[in-house]
Amino acid sequence: MLFPTATFAIFFMIVLPLSWLLMPSVHRWRPFIIAASFVFYSWWDWRFVLLLAGSILWNQLLAVRIHRAAGQPSLSRSLLILAVGGNLAILGYFKYYDFFVSSTQNLLTLVGIDLPLEVRTLVLPVGISFYTFMGISYVVDTYRGDTVPTTLEKFAVYLSFFPHLVAGPIVRPNELIPQFDSPRSARRVDTSRAFYLIAAGLFKKVVISSYLASNIVDEVFANPSQHSSLEILIAIYAYAVQIYADFSGYTDIAIGIALLLGFKFPQNFDSPYAAVSLQDFWRRWHMTLSRWLRDYLYIPLGGSRRGAAIAYRNLMLTMLIGGLWHGAGWTFVVWGGIHGVGLCIERWRRTRPGASTEELSVGAAGLAWRRLLTFHVVCFAWIFFRADTFGVAWEMITGLFTGWGEPSPLVTGGVLLAIAVGIGSQYLPARVPRVVLATFSRLNVVAQAAVLALSLMVTQALGPQDVAPFIYFQF
What we know:
This protein is mostly helical and 475 residues long. The chain folds into two domains: 17-188, no CATH class; 191-354 and 362-462, no CATH class. Helices cover 69% and strands 0% of the residues. The longest helix is centred in the N-terminal third of the chain and has 38 residues, at 73-110.
């Protein structure tokens, strides 16, 4: 069930009033919202609901056992390994089985061994990466003593809550579960911000992302050799904007929907293309995943506590695994590797002698250069993220140098405007959206409804007839 569809609109118009009607009695609300979330998830394939239910039962059972084993380090650690291993086994089977089988076959073929292995072409359950990571957070935080296992009912709401279920944000147990303890108050709901986020998210997804995908990105990445260098360059910039508008648009809608239901999600994007370094980029892009990788992978590996060499190793491993999390393909590993190498170089620059003095001397021109460099490193990495194969990625890269002066019919004013809006909006002063939101919130209900209706009409008029699924649904 996609957010920008009539089906979801009908679903939400039913769920929202019933949710607030039942909210005074949380013991009635929780089963209702679990059922609603399962209906939402089952819209793709009802069989995957069994997988979600299994994840809920598995993580709750092991979290309770880990908590009871506190004071028994050996037992609690074994239970943690079992819990995390079970989560990763399911994720690995559905997401990486065919990838590892085909990679193994290719490797054996290189050394002259012909070993027939079955490729099953498994259907990837939507959102499995996101709710698996949230399940791991729950059991790991329990093991660390950062959280205490809640009831099965509350945990089921936490893991299956439909606003975040299929593409995040990745919400930590202590960020969301305490909000289920008592009824929400409708009077405290920031409806102005919720409607603003939903309208902005729909515009980014339906208008900007869809327009760039259909007018240049998909065509160029499908056959780079048939396009000029200018078209390839603009397509790379367009994809950078497309994936940002698509994913941040989804996040805005998800946060807005959760707000209307009375719940707060953490922020997931903060003008990532205004970053002055790759480290800064990852503090702004998919922030909940960045923090997850830091707290549950980089730091457990040792972080930067064991010397420079170990820190570089941990950075590379974190980004390589982060790349593989995004997709079962070596192109995603290369994407993560590019970011890993860049982060290692930045760390070396920060820690070398005299680095602190140099940082203080950077002026406006220096910051502009860093933003430009960071943006282009990110865009270069996006080539491998978007390309279906290394062959396509190589054609994109070589095509940047071999086709200048050729006709570029795909580089239109509309494409350039969409790119400019997507990137330029991230350089607006932080007070601008606050002023817009404050102005909107001061309008009376009728005026707010009129503005919102006009916004939806514009989005509908400028958007395509059929909206493609969100990009991160496949991860």
